[in-house]
Amino acid sequence: MADFSDYGDIFADICREWDEAEKDLKRAEQVAEQVVLPAIKELRYAGRRLAQAMKLASADGDKAEIQKLLQDAAFNCHRARHDAIDAASAQIAKILDLACEKLGHDVVLAVNPQFSELIQKVEGLRDKIVKARGSPEDRDRIYEIVENADFPNLIEAFQKFRSSESLMTKMAAEQRWRRVRNDIFGYIGILGFALTVIGLIFDFRKH
Amino acid sequence: MPLFRQFFDWLSVKDYAAAKERAAIETAARYSRGNVAAQSGWFLDEAGLQKLSAAGDRAVSNLKQKTQLT
Predict the structure, then answer these.
(1) Which of A129, A186, B48, B65 sits a CA distance of 20 to 30 A from A24?
(2) Which CA distances in Å does A89 have to A117, A118, A184, B31, B70?
């Protein structure tokens, strides 16, 4: 039977990292289903490393090699946590941009008075991510703060924004219909005016 | 995409949902390091998986019908 007693610490580390990754994934899933894919892939790689380590251990393989595989698995879980936060926050930033561009600032602000706070939250989180990438020694500490405070807060605020999306879409559709109707009436008016002017010119020439 | 369809998508604000979908695929591709298929946007999401599953079910029932006929 394979002996895993030498690897207790690293297994505990993997379990802790995996649990944290699961929590981040569950939050990221609320933004968009597709954005969790990079984190899931990292967990898949972690699973692969674990399977390889177990195979080696069951054949009394090289302990250093097993240790390295388990460390890789822990690192993959760690990356999954970062990927879930990075991808979800990037997607939130994109959705907020798209809402302003496609639905209009007036509609977004009318339905979401807290919109600027939401923007500040996402920008604050993105700034921290940039800072974490710039300083490898502080990276884990910054991500831990983000993971425990900024990210859950952002997801909560974004869920409120999302719950108002159907109302915003309806308002934007009404605005677009009104614009089309006004354009049509505008063109009919211009055409009518042009025909009247042409008619008057002909009438004037006759007399 | 035909122009009139684009116009009706704009009128019904379907363009917003489509843009969000595209953005999600771009985000997934951008953060998928080392995974070439995902980087090219080739992956199945829940909706795609359901579509594929429904198509598979239809194909199997068609096949069953055909084998019963012969």
Answers:
(1) B48
(2) 15, 12, 41, 12, 57
Contacts 24+ apart (CB under 8 A), B2-9: none
Is residue A129 within 8 A of residue B54, CB to CB? The reply is no
Q: Is residue B48 part of a domain?
A: no
> Of A175, A155, A153, nearest to B16 (Cα)?
A175
CA distance A116 to chain B (A): 20
Q: How confident is the model at residue B36 (pLDDT cuts 50, 70, 90)?
A: low
Assess: ipTM above 0.85. Answer: no
What's the predicted TM-score (pTM) here?
Answer: 0.81
What pLDDT does B70 receive?
62
Q: Which of A65, A59, A40 is nearest to A2 (CA)?
A: A59
Cα–Cα dist A170/A176, whole Å:
10
Report how far residue A158's alpha carbon sits from residue A154's, in angstroms, rounded to the nearest whole number. 6
| Nearest CB to B24 within list A32, A41, A103 | A32
Domain that holds residue B3: 1-31
Which residue is closest to A171 within chain B, CA to CA?
A: B13
Q: Above 70 in pLDDT, residue A188?
A: yes
Does a structural domain hold residue B27? yes
User: Looking at beta carbons, which residues of chain B come within 8 Å of A41?
Assistant: 32, 35, 38
A190-194 contacts: CB < 8 A, separation 24 or more? Answer: none
Report the domain count for chain B. 1
Q: Is residue B68 part of a domain?
A: no
Query: Is there a domain that residue B36 lies in?
Result: no
Q: How many CA atoms lie within 13 A of B42 on its CB side?
A: 4
Of A32, A37, A172, the CB nearest to B13: A172
Residue A204, amino acid: F
